[in-house]
Amino acid sequence: MEFNRREALLTALGTAAISLFPGMSMAQARKLVFATFTGSWEEAHRDVLVPYFRKANGNAEIALDPMLSVDQIAKVTAARSNPPIDVMLHDPGPALVAIGQDLVEPFPTAQSKHYADLLPEAQDPLGPAIFFQVVGITYNPEKIKTPPKSWNDLWKPEYKGRVGITNLNSTLGTGFMVELAKMKGGGEANIEPAFEALKALQPNLAAVAANPGALATLFQQGQIDIGPGNFNAIQLLRARGVPVEFVKPETGAIAFKTSIHIVKNSPNAKLAAALIDAAMSPEVQAVLMKSPYLIVPTNKKVKMEGEISKVLAKDQAELQKTFVFQDWKKINENRSAWIDRFNREIKV
Question: Residue 16 pLDDT more than 50?
């Protein structure tokens, strides 16, 4: 009987709260859960984005749950009606999968303070991009005295046994393959020239890393001296004293969007939208652009500074001209088959 009285009282209090605050539901009592990426991304969001968001939203409770995109999608798929995640972060391939599986809901662009300030490439109501990741040529300047200029340099005989790449499970690896295909007359719809090019590259290959983080470790350990690399990861290595440099290829650096999404059926949809708006703000992006994060901003109001303006683009106009954006909708059509073939054929 005592339990029934307590239960009735809690129910009455909950009903009263909902009547006073119509936008509230009982489920919204839990923390907002943001599934960010692991490593430096988690650090950047914990140290910069989360404090800004909480200050602007009544000190709202938020938990970061760092994980890979594939795990985010699996968790939400397994509990569609009551998802354990409110906000997802994805590279372009997984983003299209999440959208195609109806796991996200539109971001309320009309109520946003910052959506209209994003670069055109970053605007998407189903998942605006809060930063760009950039891929170019990375190399050890202590071992390679003449800086490389082109992707074609990886095939030079003097780099025998010194080149490192990632497999196609990573966005870095797949983006590099598509760029190889374009160089050899193919593209997103025809990857065959890239596989032929990789066969010719095999004498130079020292390692095929499982992901960009593992590739960075190979540079740190001195096992590779040159290869495609993520700008942000390489800058973090430099900050730790690892001898490594980043070069934008003559044909332009590969760029891909990292987008942020409201999970469908989230009980915290309003707070999720507020978090996304905070991530798009010039205040947050201007801080994340600087060391030690060096994240490429998508908000046009952010002035390009520091290493990003020195190495990648002096301003937003140059950024749009020199970045190479790929068609990930077309890529996703055949990516699984490419991954299987790569794992069978490309050996070190």
Answer: no
Q: How many CA atoms lie within 13 A of 83 on its CB side?
A: 28
Question: How many CB atoms within 10 Å of residue 274?
Answer: 20
CB hemisphere CA count around 58 (13 angstroms): 2
Alpha-carbon Rg for the chain in angstroms:
22
Predicted local confidence at residue 239, as pLDDT: 82
The torsion region of residue 300 among left (phi > 0), alpha (psi -120 to 50) and beta comes to alpha
Tell me the CA distances in angstroms from 105 to 27, 125, 252, 273, one per residue in order.
18, 9, 33, 10
Grouping H, G, I as helix, E, B as strand and the rest as coil, residue 191 is coil
Convert the pLDDT of each residue in 25-36 to its tens digit. Answer: 434 458 999 999
What average pLDDT does range 319-346 have in this prediction? 92
Please say whether the beta carbons of 121 and 97 come within 8 A: no
Strand 62-64, strand 163-166: pairing: unpaired
Question: Which residue matches tokens 């309320």?
Answer: 108
pLDDT of 138 reads 95
First to last CA, the chain: 71
What is the value of pTM for the model shown? 0.81
Nearest CA-CA partner of 92 in 332, 336, 341? 332
If you search the block for the tokens 């966005």, which residue do you land on?
A: 171
pLDDT tens by residue, 183-202: 999 999 999 999 999 999 99
Residue 155 tokens read as 């095939």
For residue 271 the two structure tokens come to: 């707070």
